[in-house]
Amino acid sequence: MKFNTRAIHTGQDADPTTGATIQPIHPSSTFTQEEIGKFKSYEYSRSGNPTRKALETCLASLENGKYCCAFSSGMAAISSVLSLLVPGDHAIATEDLYGGSYRIFEWYRTHYGINFTYVNGNDSDNFARAITPATKLIWIETPSNPLTHIVDIAAVAKICRDYSVFLVADNTFASPYLQQPLILGARIVVHSTTKYINGHSDVVGGAVITNDLEIQKALGYYQNMAGAVPGPFDCWLTLRGLKTLSVRMKQHQANALQIATFLRRHPFVEAVHYPGLPDHPQHDLAKKQMSGFGGMVSFRIRGGREEANRFFKSLKVFSFAESLGAVESLACYPAVMTHAAIPKEKREKRGITDGTIRLSVGIEDSEDLINDLMNALDVAQRTA
Question: Are 42 and 189 members of one domain?
């Protein structure tokens, strides 16, 4: 079956008891056993739940993976991957990455003796140069958060194979509809399912997908042990969102390209970051490894925090809010919101300045979105 069909049907057969077409919500925390050691597939919802299993089966299929563990948040999913490391291990990560990822990486460095090196992911050779005998993992985001840098997944995957290191790809910005890192050589794919996968700003969740049975066993053990699992209703809502992923992504990226093109022409905008623009430094690479360019746009305005604040206060259609990937358009200020955990000097060195604004472009009419941005930029410019 092709992607759209799998998104709607995989793991979601009609209920065998009632014939219900839509996957039921199974809110039971426990399951009755027939005798000692004998039960009907499930025993306790931390260990497994039918609604969660349906979500995990569908997500694995969409990423062309065999196994999936769903978690109660994207950060819980990241933590599960880091549980594969032990004190003394070394990991490499891209410099331009979500602030929450940086925060937990540094926590593991401080509390568990796991060392991290951050490299510019635009040049794949930087990963090879950073590898040490203790390196176990390379972590990439592509497109990156918030500057939409593109990492050559296949090239880094080859480096990982050469050095017996496993590659983890955070695929949140692209979604499995636009990019499938496992096919390109990644060993593990991570998602904040809060974002495009759910797509409606009403669920927090995460997922880890792999084709490696040993990795899956370790992740499954951690999932059951730590217990950071999504509830059945959250799983059901995420499954509902998945059914429209492809149609939403088409509109997200159509709007994003129009907005990026508009922003490039505005005199108060100094730089625009969107891989769908032909002058994006890695446009050709994005076109090679993705089937589309996504709905995330970031840009830098002239001035800094005061000008940005006037811009945000003038928005009427975009919501000034955390998160991304939903049907409604969101505007975010990374320096104070998503990337506040990264020290200012490191943040600015990586290109995230006080004038950086991140947009999660929704599926509203593009004309309304552009008019909203135009008005907000004009207000910020007039008072600068």
Answer: yes
